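lol so apparently i was supposed to do this last week
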Amino acid sequence: MSKKSGFMKALKCRECGREYPLEATHVCEFDFGPLEVAYDYDKIKKSLTKDALAKRPQTMWRFRELLPVAEEPTVGTGVGYTPLVKADRLAKWLGVREAWVKNDAVNYPTLSFKDRVVSVALSRARELGFDTVACASTGNLANSVAANAASAGLDSFVFIPADLEEGKILNSLIYGARVVGIRGHYDEVNRLCAEIAGKYGWAFVNVNMRPYYAEGSKSMAFEIAEQLNWKLPQHTVAPMASGSLLTKIHKGYQELIKLGLAKDTKPVVHGAQATGCSPISAAYKDGKDFFKPVKPDTIAKSLAIGTPADGFYALKVMKETGGASDDVSDDEIRDAMKALAECEGIFTETAGGVTVGTAKKLVASGKIPAEDSVVLCVTGNGLKTLDAVQGHVGKPDEIKPSLREFEELIEPDLKVKTK
Amino acid sequence: MAAKKKAAKPARKAAKKAVRKTKPTAKAKRAANPRKTARLWLMFPQRLITKPVVWELSQKFPVITNVRQASVTGEIGLVCLELDGLANDVKKAVAWLERRGVSVEPVEINVIES
Ligand SMILES: Cc1ncc(COP(=O)(O)O)c(C=O)c1O
Ligand SMILES: [Zn+2]
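anyway here it is w/ pyridoxal-5'-phosphate bound
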């Protein structure tokens, strides 16, 4: 096990500030508050300069000083640095002056932003001496743990509710992960997974490795800032499940400001949810700083967390930055998925539809002023949620192998074009 | 492989029978139902906020309750509770809380992610 700590100082309780050693642990013994990684920013400032960055490969690990590993990463070394696309056609659809899409639908290797958090968790797990990694997941996280563990030669356990769709299971099984389906109500399954995580000496990525794991999301913010030539975006819209990604994007921007890599232009962070699972957005609209648990019912399965662990902190970030939260119906999600595909050629999963659809609402309500610029975090790939759009995107035309039939078919379109 | 499995089956049955004949020792009982401490977040809906649910729980089940954090408003009650007892009793206590309408999460809250 590595004794080094790199640029990390300690794990620190988000509630009371007590410090803990940099081990595989995640809650404060006193108040059960979540632990977070604290860094030595003076040391980082000397190492993470724009000159140094210019020489580094284009992956998320170019910001390695701000990611919680003690030494060079060993898992998922090719993750990140996804395109930031200037989305002029989508901006028109949104009704805003300028829009950018951070396209994690093409993140490597499993096509969602989860590859960022998982590569950090597994790299750190290996430093801490683990050879088995685990997670409880219904989709993206499972795929990413299974794939990244496979490529690193780590054993992996994936826990899922037993009634999960077959397609999603295949996406983990193919990598040789040990997949265990648990029968029972969601809450029961959830509690059992917590118990298993506490009992076995594994690196459970989103339990005992959570302080490290969650930090991986900051890399999205670092990349956005660098890709905008070190100007922080006026507005960022992020999807929220547990709310972790949103809080870490904010932390990422604040760290760049602290290190002098970007000017403090007061970046605003907004949160997007599906109406069928919107505990955080509902709390925001009610002006509350706590949320009420809900039973999810939405096509945005990857955002369907009724009791979001970081909901409280996400609400705080939105309040602090002047951000807002809104939510969109299943139909609005599909419309937004179509808009992104038709305007920018990017096919996102339902979570991306939530982000884009919510952004449109925030522009309409003036929370994002029409003359401003916005970055949309598109976090997953449309090929993973084909069932959500099936029957909603039209059908192909069909003809006999006859030129005449083809000409008859396209005649009306040609007439319109030549007008 | 398949042949081996078949051969092993009767042997396993016999072994099970043998175990069943002898009374389980105190040690075996303890192994099947060990002591454990569960760290839980309880969320009380509005209608339960004024009810002494934690007291009721400790009257009904032989478990030690230890409130470690709490935040109660007029709308929702959040209580971080440690439950210590035999595994079966802890399990029954949690099931009773849920039947009562309290949502019971592990201290990590949502362990299952997408
Ligand atoms: C595609 C996608 N986007 C966004 C999220 C939101 O993540 P968080 O739990 O950090 O809010 C998830 C998480 O599960 C996801 O799978
Ligand atoms: Zn604490």
